[in-house]
Amino acid sequence: MKFIRIILIGFVWFMFVNFISYAGEVDILLQKLVEKGILTPGEAQEIKTETQEQIKKEIAQGKYSNLPQWLQNISLKGDLRTRYQFRHEKADNNYSKDTHIGRVRMRLGLDTKVNEQIKAGIGIATNSGGDPRSTNISFGDKNSGHSSKMEIRLDYAYAKYSALSWLDIVGGKMLLSDVVWEPVDLIWDTDITPEGAVFALNKKLGSHLDGFMNNAVLFGTADTSTNADPIMLYMVQPGLKYKFNDAISLKSGFSFYSWQNVKNKAYPTDSWYKSSNTKSGTSWVYDYTLITPALELSINEPFKAIGLNVEKLKLFGEYVNNVHISDNNTGFGLGFQLGSDKINKFGDWQCKYIYAMLGKDAILDVTPDSDRYHGKTGMRSHEGIFSFGLGKNTSLGVDVYRSWSIIDTRKAPETVIQVDWNLKF
Prior knowledge:
Strand content: over 45%
Strand order of the largest sheet: 1-2-3-5-6-7-8-9-10-13-14-15-16-17-18-19
Radius of gyration: 25 Å
Oligomer: single chain
CATH topology of the largest domain: Porin
Distance between the termini: 34 Å
């Protein structure tokens, strides 16, 4: 039977390679073999799975000549998240308000290698009302409700040109990780996909030392029909990563942000925007020029000496100062991450804690984490996260925020609890 199985795997593989458009007929063949008692249902499924894995391997190695090269260069990735969210806050007249929300997020990305130096990426995601800081869709959305259909929007579309071994040029609507390194989501919500161009330098400076510098020109608003100039962001971020040994490394960065043409510009009127900077009427009062140092210490197997099997410990911090003004102009985020570096399989776990504070005018209020006190500045917040692997590529996460206003100290604190089921594919 083992010999027959080997022959069958080879035959099915041959059919996939030479007649890929007839993949459905392979299913029929395997079903017939099951019906005749040559294979059990489990053996048929195993043969099909092994064949598909072999083909995937050959496609990844560029050996699958029956597929066009451009198709072999494409890779797909995606994730699905369902969420239950509870929010407790004090509403008007100090009335206690509890909100229960069901949400879903879907993201699908496509990457392709155009040639040896150029890569392109395109992604779509669920979204509500064009919110740049969220890819969530709420069940029974107040604007539609009643199980109405949900929106899919362009999440990112960019090209990356590796001009030199140490220089990447990225343009378009980009992933945040291609724009800036940030150990904690103090300044940037991780769902934001900035628009513009980045010149990223990465150079090995020694056997233990690597250097990087991210330089970005980003668009805040499009050109206008009035005499007002569009909002622009210019960013420079030099940094270093030093590897002390196989277990300990330290990464640091120093960012300089210059937001141009914000002063006297009307702020957004979209429903997702929660105004919190200093305003005059409907306009911002200040421009925002930020200096931001950041550090991250990473330790592999930190408790090995005492017999505890913990994969990684990270300690991180970030500080921000808006040098345009002298009051309510600073902020910081401090925290740690303990457990598995990534959640990939059953039993992997990770816990994380962040304490964050942002003065009213420390940063422009369109970029911070939208889940932390509605994405406002003028706040302080504790955040605790626990994630556990339920199986391959699936996990359960619990995220808790406890936040206060530092502008209106009479206002009661807000509690947000998010329970997520995550699936990656």
